[in-house]
Structure formats: C-alpha cells, structure tokens
Records
---
Amino acid sequence: MNTTRTTTIRPGLATRAPGTEHERGDAMTAVLDIHELHRTFGSGHTAVTALDEVTLSVARGELVAIMGPSGCGKSTLLTLAGGLDEPTRGRVLVEGHDLAEQRADARAELRRRTIGYVFQELNLLPGLTAAENVSLPLELDRMRLREARRAAHAVLEEVGLTEHADRFPEDLSGGEQQRVAIARALVGDRRLLLADEPTGALDSVAGEGVLRLLRRACDERGAACVLVTHDAAQAAWADRIVFLRDGRVVDHAGAATVSLGGGR
Amino acid sequence: MSRNRALLRLAARDARRDGWRTVLVVTAVVLPVFALAGGILAVDTMQPTGEERATGLLGQADARLSLWSASDEHDTPIADLDQRVDPTVRLEPIVNLPATVELLDIERGVQVSDLDLSPDALAAGQVELVEGRAAVADDEVVVTAALAELGELAIGDAVDVMVDPSGSQDRAAMIPLTGVTVVGVAERLEFLDERAVYVAPGVLPHELTTEVLLASDGPVDIAGPGVLFAGDTLTEPVVWFVETREQVVSQRFPGNQRIAALLLGGLAIVETALLAGAAFAVSVRRRQRELGLLAATGGRRRDVRRSVLWTGGVISVAAGVIGILLAIGALLAAMPVLESVAGRRIAEPRIDAWWLLTVGLVGMAGGLLGAWLPARGVARLPVTVALGGRRPVPEGSRRTAGAGLLLIVFGLAVLALPITETGRRLLFGIMADVIFGAAVMLIGCVAIVLGAGLLSPTLLGGLGRLAPRLGVGPRLAVRDAARFRMRNGPLVTAAMAALAASITVTSVLGSMEREERAFYTPTHAEEQIIINGPGAQQAAQAIGDELGAAPAALQQLSGLSATTTPRNAGGTLASVVVATPELLGALAQDGTDTTVAPDEAVLVGDESDVVEVRWMEDDRSLLTVEQVRSVPARGVDERIGGGYWQLPALLLPPDLLAEIEAVLDEQGLQITTQPLPNAEHLLVLDAPVDDEAEATARRIGAQAGGDGLLVSVERGYQDSFASVRWAVLSVGLLAGLAVVAIALALAATEGRRDTVTMAAVGASRRARLGLAAGRAAVLSGLASLLAVPVGLAPALMLTVPLGFDVVIPWFAIAVVVIGVPVVATVGAWLAAWRGIDRVRLTRVV
C-alpha cells in the first residue's frame, strides 16, 4: 500500500456538490458519489425494494467492497453506479456527472471512457480476440485501430497476457478470460472499476490473481474500485467494506475488521 | 421402456420451455403438411369417383350409346334400334339438342333434353329435382338451377324455348316450344353449371335421338358383338359411341397431382429440415449443461441423442397432426367453394388416410431430420465440456464441403442431361413421361441446393478471415456468422434456395416470354374491336354508341371462292364479305369513297391489278365481276394474317349477290351467311384501343350480348407471364426474407449476452444497432450472392434444350442481390431499434 486512503460510509449523508473535496480526506476527489439511492422493481403489491436510501462515496485510488447476503441489492447498486439501470429515486454522480441528467449516449460515453465493468460471468465477446476485446471500448470511441491495439497490448502486458493477445476467449482459461476482462475495464485510463463478483467463476488461485490486479489498479493507476463480493477473504483486499441487507446499508468497516489474513 | 417414458416426459417439457423456437419448428412442419394435405384432400374431394362419374353419365344404365356424328342426308336409324338389339336389353332413348331461351331480354344458349326424371327410369341419378316436379305435359319444362338463377326463373314462369336440331341457328329450322311453364328446378349432379331445359319424354321427335341408355336384366354383355348391332356401327355415316358402366367406372385420371405433391413434399422436407435444424441447434446449445448432467448421471451417448430426438419427435408429431387436422378442417369449411370450383355436387369429403399419413410423415421426417445433427453433435461432446457450459463451436469439416461440391457437380450434370440428344431421349423420349423428366430435373435442382448447403459453412468460415480488416460492428457480425457457421449454413441455404428459385423461374418464364413475343402475330389492327357470337349486333351497336363508332357487319360469304388476276398467294381471297358503306368506311383508309356501287366489287388491302372476281360452285362459274375497285386498308399491320378474317378482303355489294340468288334480307344472307344478329361486327376507333375502351367494350358486350359473346381487341403482344413472374419473385423474396429474419432472431437470441456486454463497455445505441444490421447484411448478402449462380444454372440448363435464348433476369437479380440485403439490414436495424432498450442490461450484469 503506497497511498493513504480515507473512506466515508454514511447512510443519509447530505449531497455534496460534484468535484468538492472529501470532508475527511486529504483533498481526495470522489470518483463515485451515490446519494440516497432507491430502486424498486415492480409496482403495487408485487413491488420489491432492491435498494433503499443508500449513500456511498468512493474516492480515487480507493477499493470498496460491498458485502451482503444474496438478494440484498449488491448487483443492483453496481448497475445503477454504472448507468446500466436508472434509480427510482436518488442520484449517482460519476466524476461529478449526474447520470440522471445524461442521455443514453452520454452515459455510454462515460462507460467507454470512465467506467470499467468486470462481470462474474466471463463476459468477453467470443467473436473477438483477447486484444480486440480489450481495445473494444477504444475502437467504439473511434480511436484509430493501430493506436487502440497498441493501448490494448500495453494493458494486456500489465495483466500478463501479451502472448495470448491474438487468442479467442474460448481458447483461454477462466482466469485468463477474467484478466482480459479486467484489462478491458482498465484500458483507456478508466477511473472507476465496477467488479461484480469477478472471481465467482474462478478457482482460488486465479481469483487471487484477479483481486491482485484490481488492487494494483487502485494503487498504481489511482482508479476507484467497487468490488461486490460475498467472500470475506476477498473483501479483505478492500480499503473498506459496506454491508448491505435488504437494500439498506447496515454497517461499514475497515478492511482489518473482517480481514482473515488475505493476501495483500 | 421406462427410460423412453422419462425421455418423452423430458422432451415434452423441453418443447414447452423452448417457447418460440418450438413455435418456429411447429410452423416449419405445419405449413408444408397443411399445404400438401389440403391440396391432396381438395383434389380428391373434387374429383368424382368412378361410380359417381358413371351415375352422372349413365344414371342406372349399364351402357350408353352416344351419337358421334351424323349427316343430314341420312336418317338416324334409331327408330328400329329396339328391334335390332337383344330382346333382354332395356332401352331408354334421349333427345339432347341445342336450343335458345330468351331470358331477361337476352337470348341464351341452353341444352334441351327429354331425359326421364322419374325414379325408376334408367337415367335416375343423373339429375335430381330440388324443387317442384318433373314435366309430364307438352307445355311443361324443368330447368336447371343454373339456368333458373341466370334468368331469375321460378316455378310457374312461362318461357319460350327454340330448339335448334341442326345447330345452324337457322330460325326457320327450329322447333318452337312457346309459352311452356316451368314446373320444377333440377340439378345435374355432376354438371352443376349446366344450363338445361328438361321436357317430358316424347315431346321432342324420336328420330332426333342423340343418346340411348341401355340396361340388361340378364347376363348380357351390352357392348359385346351381336348384342347391340351386327357390327360396330349402326349404319354409315352415323357413328355411335358405346360406353359401358365398367368402362366409365374404371376410367383413371393420371395421378400427376399426387406425383407433383410428392415432389413438392420432397422440397418441403428439405426446407423444413433446414429451418428446424437451426432452431434445434440453438435449443441444444441452451440445454447443453442439462444434457451434460444426463451424461454425467449415467446416460449413454444414445440417451443424450435420444433426448434431443424425442424433443424433435414430439414437436414434429404434434406439428404433423396439427397440419393434418388443419387441412381436414379447411376442407370441411371449403366444401361449398370446392363444389363451385368442381361444378359438381359433392356428397361428402373424401379423406384418404394413407395419403394423409404419408404427408404427415414427410413433415415429421423434416422435423426429425432437423433435430438429428444437433442431437448427434451434443451426444459426442465430452461430458466435462458439456457440464462446464463451454460452447465449442462446431466446425464444418472438409469432408462436408467435399460432399457439397460433389452434390453440386452431380446436380449440374443431371440438369445438363437434356442438352445432349441422349439425355433428352432418356428423360423425355424413351420414358415418354414428362413427369419423370421433371422429377429428374427437380432432383438436379435439389442436389445443387443441398450441395450449396453443405458448402455454405466452409464459405462462412472463409468469410471470417476478412474480419480483422473490418470495423468493430462488421467484424463481430462476420465473426459471428463464421463461428456459428454450422447453424447459419442451413439457414443461408434455405434463404438462398427461395431466392434462387425465384431467379430460375423468372429466367425460364422470361425466356418463354421472349420466344412468344418474337413469334407473336396480331390478329387485326390495333384500333379495331371485333364482336362475334350471340347478340353480336345489339352488343356492337351498344358498344359503338358508347365509344362513338359505327358498327359494320362482317357477313362472311362462306363457300364463295374469288380469284383475282394477277393471282395473289393461293389465288383466292379468304375474306369475302357483304359490302356496306359502314364496312367499307371501317376497313378502308380515311378519305376512301365509301359509296358501294351496285355492280362493283371492292378489294380492300390489295392494290394489285385485279381484273376479275369469280364465284365458283361445282366447277360452274356463278358470278364474274369484272368491275373491281382496289382501295388501301386502314391501320393494317403487315404481319396480320389468320385470325377472325383476313386482308385483303373482297366486298361484294348486295345487288350482285342477289344475282346469284344469295338474298340479303333482314335475317342476313340466307344459305350462305350467318344470320345477321350473330354475324361478326367490326368497330373502328380513331386511335388504338386503350385499357379503358377495352374494359368499356367488354362490359357493355357482357350486358347487351348473349352468352358466349366475344369481344376481341388487338392490343399488341401482352406479356402473359408478367403476373406469374411477379408472383414467383414476390413469394421467393418473402420466403428468403422470412428465413433471414429467422436466422437473425436466432442470432439475436444467441447474441443477447454480447449485446449487453457491448452496452456495458460503452457501445452506443448506434453501435449496437450496427451489430444487428451487420449480422443481417452478412447473412442476407451471402444468401443473395449464392442465389444468383444457383438460380441461373438450372435456368440455363432448362432453356437451352428447348432452343430458347436464355434471358438473364437482371431486375430479379438486382432485387435479390441489392434489395434483399438492404431490406434485411434496414429491417434488422428497425427491429433492434424497437427491442434494444427492452433488453434489461441488468440481467447479465
């Protein structure tokens, strides 16, 4: 750990203006700022509240783990943070941009340039090689093909997959695929990583490798990272942990509180 | 047994779970089964059985004598027939003659018959009284329902019937039945549309008998020698035709429809298998983990295979049964329509269970064939791979591609057979069976399509090599097409087959059309309308009034042989007509003096020096006309020849005709010409007859003329194949697009996860739409491009042996190559536009 991080988990925290400094940090900027987020699915008697008044802020270089039992709203929180879904109430700000005020194309642009997703199910496009999967956001952003490939190779080198750049996903192991997915989430200097149980489909060795990459992205690239997990050992890689139950933030803790000696 | 029950249960559940893919397979099986079964049922039901045919013609009789031909110079020797046949034979002579009845001020042609309508008559069963009673008195008649409806006749109405024994329409020779009362309405069961009048037996002269029904109570061979007559004929030159009940019952009509149905069934099974195969491939992919579990829990390869095949079987059987039930339902619903089309009373629908079963099995076989390859593929998958959910992409083997190439070569060779003399004799000569030749040609076409189908995965795989050079959207589309080539191949083939068929048919029909156009000969000038048939005079007058032209009668002088000097071809003039100023005005060029001098013949359309016109009869010259005026004809196309009448024509004035005792009175020229009211009439307009004028002429002709009035207009060559070509092209395009749509729907289902991933990495809505459109462009483009050579090859092979110039249907090719991909791409874009936001991104995340 070579950076100092200050975290805040405050249900009901008053909204801060975008770009203001963190009140308990040393001039840290919140990359992700979620305020009183509420999401209900269905209506009437069948209405289900997935998230209820959740407020959360994640600063640059910070890794926050979201824990909780199945159905507590972890994944919903992530989809709302990434602009893949729209909240019933509340606001999500990514680098100061209120997602609710942005059109679909602008949100897509945010996902290309700012937000990187890592899914539990190895969501690589099977029709593209590893390098093409990594360069996909850049190509979609109309970067020249050669530059996009160069950038992709650079990130693949970071995750140790240079020699697999031209392989298709089906020729890679699960761990390798997830490393490609992380490379895709990092490419283009993205500042917010959203990882939804990224090790769920991997064995423990491969899973640890993935977590190490996420940690390194926060530490070395200064990315903010939200890691959804139900595994305390994985949560120990985080700077702080947010506990969700029935859609509400019920507790928060520093990593040491739940650390089981997991391996940073 | 219990294992099969478990698999059956699984299959039924999977079929339900597969939702729209099951619907797709069911539709793919139901449609051909319904069409084939419905077609066969309808044809079977409309065709009478041998017994029905015999009753329709013979009633209860064992045989029938029909007058084949007769001469006016000899009496019909029917009077003494009863004395010449075996005494045990019962006879029932019938007089059946043409007649006219004036109904609603229009003279209608009918048949008059003295058929005995009583239940114990030999004729019983031919005609059924539906209202009233049979005629018993001289002044009573029964009319058929068709005639009653036409003339709005009811029981108690009086009609005038003019019986025309000679068929010459010579009123003087007619037998009038004036003021007879309609006492009954009947139906001729096998000929519902017949307009007939039934008089009481004995009303018509016995010597005019045209038909005799015979029956024998004993074991007498009615048609045997010596029973009816001493020889084969009664007396010369009257010839009688003998038909026995056995002959009529055993008459068989060629089973071409069924052979055609089976050939179509063969094509349908290919199309069904291609569509169903793709749907099953997706289902199997989705069930892969479950099938892996089946294998992991002790299931053998064949159990896994059976599990998929049971699903295919359950769906196909259900679809086959649905198709057959729908066909039977449609048959029952369409019975009144079938009766109307067949023109006979159909007692009950005829349902041939064996044929239905065959058709159902054809559909089911298509469905099962579609399930076979995916079932075989998943059964061979290693259990760990199946359980791991990994999706190895099956690759097209070189052996498959090789087999495809072989099939294409075989198909081309078969189609090329008629190019050689030996091949022509083999297909159409020695076998002397067009159906056989057509079947062989069809096999050639199917071989080419199947070959292209086997080759298409390799082509799709090759297409994938272009991907690295393309942008993200097209790259993904091409790679998807290549990755799923084993699923896309059959679908591309199905679309290609539909599009290729439309190119083949439009090319062949285009070649036939070009041939017809080259040899087309107009029958008369394009500004003329010719009216002939019953009521021609009134009709011509009415049409002329409406279109502003004066009608001229074309009274052909049959038997008049006119020669000219110098002689024109053949030395005679085919058209010799009665000259009137109106006719001369109609035929001759504008500015011609239309006065008809009493001693002058007018030759229209031949300006050679005519010195003499003669009418020869029995080598005697009855008439010599030395004063002949030649005038140019109007609007004559030099190609005109044949048809209703010909130019040059000779117009003879009535005064000259009177000299040879050809008297022109109100009825026209007696003896030598048709009566005036039915003579051909000519109307000449100021300009070529356009669509509107033609429609007007036909409408007024139908109103003012009698039954069978013909209004003939020369419009130049009309492309008789145009509508068929358009219909075939449209159906081919729709079928091709439908298959492409199915391919895209399957691709969209498979690619939903990719679409969501694209969204998550920031692909704009436009980029995602582009991916959907790119898939459509790749699949439809490949199908369209393949369709051109596959469609043109059979066209070439089919038209060359016929000696036709091959027409390349550029328009159809352009529509297929450009139109189909554009429509498919735009359609996919629009479909994705509507659906793209409905894909919940959160489902995958």
---
Amino acid sequence: MKSKPTFGLLFFFLLGLLPFVAALIYALLYSLGIVGILSEGASISYWRQVFQSGELIGSFLYSALLAGIGVALSVSLALLVSMGLRTSLQHRFWSLLIYFPLAIPGMVASFLSIQLLSKAGFFSRISMKMGWIDSLQQFPDWINDSYGIGIILTFVLIVSPFFVILFSNVYQNERVSELSTLAYSLGARSNQVFWKVTLPILFSKTKRIMILYFIFLLGSYEIPLVLGQESPQMLSVLIIRELKQFDLKLIPEGYVIAVAYTVVIAVSALLVFRRREVQVHE
Amino acid sequence: MFLEVKQLSKSFQKDLIVDRLSLSLDQHRTLSILGRSGCGKTTLLKLIAGLETADQGSIWVNGEEMSGKTPAERKIVYLYQEDLLFPHLTVRGNIGFGLKLQKVAPSQIAEQVDLMIERLELQGQGDKMPQQLSGGQRQRVSFGRAIITNPRLLLLDEPFGSLDVGTRQRMQELFKELAAIYGITSLFVTHDLKEAILMGDDIGLMKKGSLQIYSDKQDFLLDPQTGVRSEIEFWESLLKPNY
C-alpha cells in the first residue's frame, strides 16, 4: 500500500514545491541579471549594491524586531487571557468573541487601527473628552510612527486570539490541570506550578507555532503598508517597492532582497524544524 | 497513631461521597482499601492530600491537624491512577522534581536521583522523555518521583490499574521493596481483591462512602461482603471433576 504516500508526495511536489522552486530560480536569475527585460548579462553588481546600501539589513532587523515584539506581546496577552479566563472561555459567547478577530483580514485590521489609534481616532477623542489631553494633536503618534507601535498593536490584535485558543487547547490536551495538582501534591506553591509546570508545558508544545507566527509576521505586507513609515520599511513592503520602481534597470535589486529573504527564512526554518520527533517504545 | 481520620464527610452537590469516615494507621505501615468504582476511594485520598476540602471531620498526621494546610504544607503525596509524568522533563527531571522544589543542592539531587533510578531498575533510561517509556517504566518513574521526596504519607490511587498482569505483579513487588527501604506509610486504594490482600499490612473495605477496617486479614477473608469467599468458590468449582 505504498501508492497513497507516493501520490501525496507527487501532489505536494507538483503543487507545493515546484512552483516555489521555479519562482525562486526565476528570482535568482533576475537578481543576477540573467533574465529580465533590460538584462545585461550575468553580474553580481545588484547583490553588491543592495548589501552596500544597508537598506536590506536595516529592513530585516526592523521587521524582525517588530515581528518579535508582536509575537512576544501576543503570547503574553494570550497567556493572561487563557489562564485567567479558563472557565469563562468554555462558554459559547466568550469563545465566539475570541474567534471573531481571527476572521478580520490584515487590511481591515489596519484600517480599524487607524480608526482607533490615530490622532483623529477613537482613543484620541476619548482622551480629549476625559481631559487627559488639550488637543487631538497631543495624542501620541501610533500610526505611521517610527517605533512601529501601530503595526505592533495590530499584530497583537490579529495574532493573540489564535494563541488564546491554542493555549486553551494545549492546556486541556496535555492535562496541565492534573499535572498542576500533582505538582501541588509534590510540594509546589502556586508560582512554582506556573513557572515550572504550566508555562514550560505550554511553551514546549507551542514553540514551533510561535516561530511560524514570527516568520508569518516577518513577511506580512498589508499591515506595515498601511501603518508603517517611509524608512525603514518592513521587508515585504520594501520588496514590492523595489519591484515596482520607475527605473526598470533597478528591478533586479527587488529580486535580490526577495531571494535573500527567502533563503534566510528557509535555512532558519530548516534549522529550527530539523529535530526529529522522539520514538515511542511501548 | 500516625494517621488519624475522624468523622470525615464530603458531598458533591446532593451526593454524599464520604460519610463520617474514620480510620487510623501506624507509621511505616500500609493500609489497603478495597472498593468498587464510585465508592468514594479517590475522594477520601484527595481529602487527606488537601486537594479537596472536607465538609466536616478532621485529619491528623503525627499529632498535627491538617485542615487549613495547603497540599505542599502537608507533605503528603497523592499518586494518580495513571502514570502522569511531566511531559517536558526527562526521567531524571521527573524523579528530581520534588527535590528541586525543596531547593535541595543540585549535587545531592543528582546523587539521590541516580540511586532511585538504580532501585527502580531504570538504568540507562535517565535521559529519556516520558513518551519514550513503556507503561510500566512510566509508573516506576511516577513512584520514584513520589518516594524520593520522603513524604510523611503516600496515597496510592489504584496505581497499577492500567498495567498488564506481569508488569502489575513486578510493580507490586517493587512497591513493597521500596516501602521497606524508605519506611513508607501509605494508603493503597484498589478495586482488585488479590492486590488489596497482597499490598496491605492492614486492610479495609469501602462501601458507599463508609470504611470498615478489619482487625486482621482472617476477618477480611471470612466476611462475605469482601467477595473473597465467592472468589474461592469460583476457583474451587473449576477444579471439580464434573465441571
């Protein structure tokens, strides 16, 4: 009965892997000046230009920082909610409320953030009504700001509900409640149960998903496009800007960034996920 | 008496699960409690461990009243029916968990854990994760983790219920060995007649929240309620030639 896995692998290769590899090869050839409308033959000059300008490194670090903070805040908030409201989350109303933000597309979430967080937005007006600020202009810059606060908050809005659901499920499936009781019985106090049992179990079972979400946020496009600033820009925004610039001769630079980004992420993902699952001996 | 339980009661909603139950136990002895599912055995153990709160009655350990004390303060370890191991820790980490909580020096933890691994016959398994172990091995780790903390009282809730006959027998022998080495005082709850007789120095029968403790094993064997006589009659009937 080997036909099913073989067919599955072939299907994955044809629909999943082949287009991706083909696109990567095309991008690599474009970045080396081998293909393209104004191709002038093989050259590494575009790669040299991109790395010398420092924009790629800056954008990569900026994206990694925002994605890292976004995941860290989302995970922390989700932990608070899932552990604090463990019983309530079993009610239909609360679980629906948690699922709801998952259905919001990135672009919609971005415009929602503008409505809420901008100087003319909801919180700004509330702050003025409450007398905390004298004019709307005094409200802090959270949209298109240099620290990416609007981007981070929007990341948290769309990512944290997923982690609330994930943590709640892992808590149940891994029987953390019973393990906590066991730890109490072995002499643990509440804070020891949290730090030595609950947290390590939840993290060990979800760390790969956290890494995947980091990669997902690192490459996110709509949210940084709407809420980000001109420079530095997050990677996807930078790549699209480079690919769509007026000077057609500079388009290969966009492909350089895309190839470099893909290789870094692919290699990192391979390193992270290469560990094999342990075998069970019954 | 080392352990004294006086007039303990516990209800869940309108169901009376433990009904004015009293028992006493000397130090370094094991009391087997035989009872069917739902008779209140697990609730009794959880009340003694401090994992449930009694509606009335009191629990005394070594002359000290336990009510109001947290499970950690009681130094009573409750061993689950299943081999519940911490999935993020190795065998070594699981066994040394309680000692780490007590802030024992790492070198001492390592020494005691190695000794326990040897006694549990788990040499070479110390760095494995729980999912790499068999059911019997997991149960041994669970035992070692409880015993190494030197609890004042060990509460075993049908600990071998999920094991096959051979492994179960080996575990029963191992428990008796460890109980002797570490001077364990324990309550051993089971629904298995033979196990109840084998494991306990003293023996009791629990029914509908009440516990009857027998003065000696002969009394237990002769009481028709325990089911020993019907068991003997069954095996004897198999040996009859006309069967």
